Amino acid sequence: MMERDIHISPQDLLLSLQFKKGDFGDTALISGQQHRAKMCLERLDNPVKNFTFLGYTFWTGTYKNRKVTVGNGGFYSPDSAFVTELLCVGGINNFIRLGSCGALRKDIEIGDYVVAADIFRGEGVTAYYVDKDYKPCISKDLSEKVFEIFSRKGRSHRGGVWTTDALFKETPQLVNPQIEKGAIAVDMVTSAFVTLANVYERKVAAVLAVSDNLITGELGFADYRFFESEMKMIDAGFKVIDKIQEE
């Protein structure tokens, strides 16, 4: 039988990856897709790879003389949770997620942006960290900066995001109650990402490019509007860092 308090901690894993205190910047732009992370990487001066683990890679460099960390932080809730926890323990204080989502309103189009406001938990991993009634909270000041910048880049909406683990079980029976609660978008990451940042008392915001629409049935995964919004969100993400730097 297992007798140790825990098998492995985030600190243990970072140590095994030869990570040292101070390697990360204060702010991180975190993507699900690797190509978004690499587009962020191109904006950094003198980037250094912090680590690669299970296909997740993070770099830290400078942007306008400020240390910034970028990387691909998970496709789904379980991997997003452990990567976010590693980044929290590693010393990052401002978390900005550059993700994607399905829209839950007819008027939200492919390529629009959704800035997360309320978070609705429909995944399984956060139950290991918080009780069932816990409500994740974005950081209003950081999220306000995100919404201000992204509104200049394209049609932007602010509202609830429901996170689910089951892509092929997005049925009316499961989706409609979330819409009634105020969800305007669905993804597979945001709840875990925000919850873990909350647990470590970090500032956190999430902005999602719309890839499909559950109300109209439109699929835009290969739509130029979605790809264009992905490219624009990289520039907008760094403009948010400019706003943080002004403080």
Fold and architecture overview:
There is one protein chain. The chain has about 250 residues and is α/β, with parallel strands linked by helices. It has one domain (about 10-245): Rossmann fold (3-Layer(aba) Sandwich). Helices cover about 35% and strands about 30% of the residues. The chain has seven helices and nine strands; from the N terminus they run αβαβββαββαβαβαβα. It has helices at about 10-15, 35-40, 75-90, 140-155, 170-180, 190-200, 225-245; strands at about 25-30, 45-55, 55-65, 65-70, 95-105, 115-120, 155-165, 185, 205-215. The protein has a five-stranded mixed beta barrel, surrounded by four helices. It is globular. The termini are far apart.
Helix share, percent:
25-40%
Overall 3D geometry?
globular
Report how far the terminal alpha carbons are from each other.
Answer: 52 Å
Figure out the total of helices: 7
List the helices and strands and how they pair.
Blueprint: H1 10-16, E1 27-31, H2 34-41, E2 45-53, E3 56-63, E4 66-72, H3 77-89, E5 94-103, E6 113-122, H4 140-153, E7 156-164, H5 172-181, E8 183-187, H6 190-199, E9 203-213, H7 224-246
Parallel strand pairs: 1-4, 1-5, 5-9, 6-7, 7-8
Antiparallel strand pairs: 2-3, 3-4, 5-8, 6-9
